[in-house]
Design goal:
By secondary structure, the chain is an alpha/beta fold. It contains twelve helices and eight strands. Strands 7-5-6-4-1-2-3-8 form an eight-stranded mixed sheet, sandwiched between helices. The longest helix has 29 residues.
């Protein structure tokens, strides 16, 4: 029997429709891992309630009361997927040797957990779950995801291609992650910055078992924008270069317009109007918008507000009752 304590951390927001199914599937998997001697029997599944408006937290408490395998924490309010995930990781590292994060919808293949653990036993502190294909995605989502990863690479941000938040991290890696104090979280970019030896495991992502996706197009777009502006300042550099190019083009256009004017081929008033509006208005608005994104993030960082507040930890309740 292994002494390695594993915690599986699962952020939950309004997941009452799928939570019991998720618990049943994970219980079977954990029992298999126990029987195979891959992990300690002190291992657990930790659900993180991200301020759900339905019965998610009540279901988590019921699961905990019925079976010690399950535990959970609840945040004081909804803080978003990344903050909820971080709250779970930072809490679980107090009790576990390794932590695996995954979503509640059971789209991630839990059968590769064995391979995660094998990679950890080979000396890897971080193991990334990487999708082998995107057959279950729509054409639009598949193409936009591909464009996002290529854009992130071009901007110089280090991410793992086709990896979301299905990963294993050792206690040492989690201690390293804890040293990153960003308020604007993009864990897919922060985890590779931790370093340490890492590897990948490929798997097929399935369909959502129940409930609705918590990442519609609007949220996905905002998430991508957060990722870009949190990990790279290249957009600001591009603004500078674009501004220089537009300035040089404007000078060339000015010379041409003056030539046309003095040769008598220009319409009255045409020259001044063309010079004043030629692409500059749109460029300025674009530049202000991009710079504003960074200023907004600086504003949030300087306030140093807590990324999450834990309202209740079922592990502490258990310890108190013992």
């Amino acid at each position: 029997m292994s002494d390695t304590i594993l915690y599986i951390v699962i952020p939950c927001y309004n997941e009452q429709e799928v939570l019991n199914l998720t618990a049943d599937v994970l219980k079977q998997k954990m029992n298999t891992l126990f029987n195979d001697g891959k992990i300690s029997t002190r291992s657990k599944v930790m659900f993180v309630n991200d301020g759900s408006k339905d019965k998610t937290w009540q279901i988590i408490k019921d699961l905990h009361r019925e079976d010690a395998l399950f535990t959970g924490i609840t945040l004081s309010r909804n803080r978003g997927h990344q903050n909820a995930l971080l709250a779970g990781l930072m809490t679980a590292k107090q009790y576990a040797d390794i932590v695996i994060s995954m979503d509640a919808d059971m789209q991630d293949d839990i059968n590769v957990i064995d391979r995660f653990i094998d990679k950890y036993n080979q000396g890897n502190d971080i193991v990334y779950g990487v999708r082998s294909s995107r057959k279950t995605d729509t054409v639009f989502k598949r193409n936009t995801a591909l464009a996002f990863y290529k854009l992130m690479q071009w901007l110089g941000a280090e991410t793992v291609y086709n990896h979301a938040d299905y990963r294993l991290m050792s206690k040492r890696a989690l201690e390293g992650l804890a040293q990153f104090n960003e308020v604007n979280l993009f864990l897919r970019g922060l985890v590779p910055m931790v370093g340490y030896l890492s590897d990948t495991v490929e798997y097929e992502r399935g369909e959502r078992k129940a409930g609705e996706s918590k990442y519609p197009l609007k949220k996905m777009t905002a998430f991508a924008l957060d990722g870009i502006t949190s990990l790279s300042i290249k957009p600001i550099t591009l603004i500078t270069k674009l501004g220089l190019i537009i300035f040089l083009l404007s000078l060339a256009a000015l010379i041409w317009i003056l030539i046309v004017k003095f040769t008598g081929h220009a319409t009255i008033g045409w020259s001044s109007i063309l010079i004043s509006i030629w692409m500059l208005g749109g460029l300025q608005l674009l530049a202000i918008g991009i710079i504003g994104e960074y200023i907004g993030k600086i504003y949030k960082e300087t306030k140093q507000r807590p990324r999450y507040i834990i309202a209740e930890n079922l592990e502490e309740v258990k310890d108190t009752n013992q």
